[in-house]
User: What shape does this take?
Amino acid sequence: MIPDKYHDLLESTALAHVSTLGPSGEPQSNPVWFGWDGTHIRFSQTTKRQKYRNLQRDPRVAISIVDPNDPYRYLEIRGNVIAIEDDSSLAFINSMAKKYLGQEIYPWHIPGDKRVVVVVASEHTSQMG
Amino acid sequence: MIPDKYHDLLESTALAHVSTLGPSGEPQSNPVWFGWDGTHIRFSQTTKRQKYRNLQRDPRVAISIVDPNDPYRYLEIRGNVIAIEDDSSLAFINSMAKKYLGQEIYPWHIPGDKRVVVVVASEHTSQMG
Assistant: This one.
């Protein structure tokens, strides 16, 4: 689904700007760390966040990622959240800390925060460069 | 509307990830050059693009901008397109080339493309850092 030519972006430490739909169907967007398993995009979320509530209401997302080495090269992924997985072990957020910070343990975990992994399947892509 | 503390991001050469709503109300997102006049966010568009059609159908947008010098600092602006201005003189797109490329003339203009300026008013912001 995602052109091979852009797989390097999915393996990079670029941020993913994830857009979701708010309560009135309005777009909301913010940057997140993300992972890619060769098929799906994954990002961490706490269950207190607006984005989590948005995704429970409407699973449609758009994700845009710019090449950190070339601002004129980007990938947009439009798709759906197909699963929200428990991350109470913090295994996933720790893997993100490893990817983005080079640290084994995510340093900003707040005790009591319930962490989940949002799993996105691509339905359509657009790209430049 | 936009906290003073984040005005530097609006004056930076960061890219703005602009999310609009597609024909089925789904989010779409891509990075754009943008300008700020102290009140409104402006970005260029050609009238052939999906984003232009989206904005004519539904003026709601979300814009997320990450600090180029600090990936943990960002600003999200949610708002509405309040005007779409003619740019057939290319004055605005040339000003964007000046800002982002240091060039007087936008080098990638395609003769026949109709350029407009999309003007966004902020309704709500979220931020980190």
Summary: Helices of chain A lie at 7-11, 50-57, 91-101.
